[in-house]
Amino acid sequence: MLRLLSPLLVLLWMPFQSVACVLQMQAQHFPPRFIKLESTTGEVVWQGFNAELYQQLAERMGCKAELLEIPFGRAMQMLADGELGMMSNVSKNAERAEFAHFIGPVSTERTMVVGERSLLGLVGNLQQLAEVDGQIGLMQGVFYGQAFADELEQNPQLQERLAYVGTSQQKLDLLLRGRIQLTFEDSLTLQQLYQQGVLDEQELVALFTLYESPVYLAVSKAAFDKERLHQLQLAWQQLVADGTLAGLQQRYFSAVELP
Question: Which of 88, 84, 73 lies closest to 168 in space, CA to CA?
Fold first, then answer.
């Protein structure tokens, strides 16, 4: 049997006949923010910071939170088209502001460049990253900071070394199989991979911080009318005011040691 942390830490895929509205939200296995589990009966169970945050917001709006497992890049396009209501862990930029409202910030995300320990001292900034050999794995549709975007525009050789994937798991698989030599990883996720023994900290290490930024809930302008957006904003304000957000951050983030 699957052991659950508590009733509030779980999102189950359930029928919603008795629910007045449904909030469709993107999810992807990305611990400790999203943790995808499967019960012995084959039910999908979502745990983690963002999963519970979605549930809390939906409950305050009188809705059901429906998590859709969609690659980040595809989900961003669906958000722009109004085919998806919300995404989390989204950093602000001018392009996204054209089609999304931003609620938050929800947390701060720190993106680390990860590679072999032998590269410590040799790769410590963006310019050195551009010069070192090896394929780099990164997520399609994720914004890795303006400095990285500028370097890509100016450096076609760096562009040729990039391997884009749709999910974090695909990126991890490529790294473990030696198909890529470097990757970009969230600091919290990286520490969980160490703690769970998925990655060996003696072999693969954080070389430097590529990008650090507050991240938000991105809400589709095409999918949310003014009334629904106002309800969501009120629900968010309640989460902040009553300490729910701080409690979730403490529960999921404080136990993870940052590099």
Answer: 73
Distance (Å, rounded) from C-alpha 126 to C-alpha 132?
A: 10
- Looking from the CA of 177 toward its CB, the CA atoms found within 13 Å total 8
Task: Give, in degrees to the nearest 5, the angle at Cα 105 between 103 and 106.
Answer: 95
Rounded CA separation 221/86 (Å): 10
- Rounded mean pLDDT of the chain? 88
Give the contacts of 5 (CB within 8 A, at least 6 positions apart). 47
CA-to-CA distance for 216 and 23, rounded, in angstroms? 17
Q: Is the pTM of this model over 0.90?
A: no
Q: What is the percentage of the chain residues whose pLDDT exceeds 70?
A: 90
List pLDDT tens digits, range 29-41.
888 999 999 888 8
Across 86-90, average pLDDT: 95
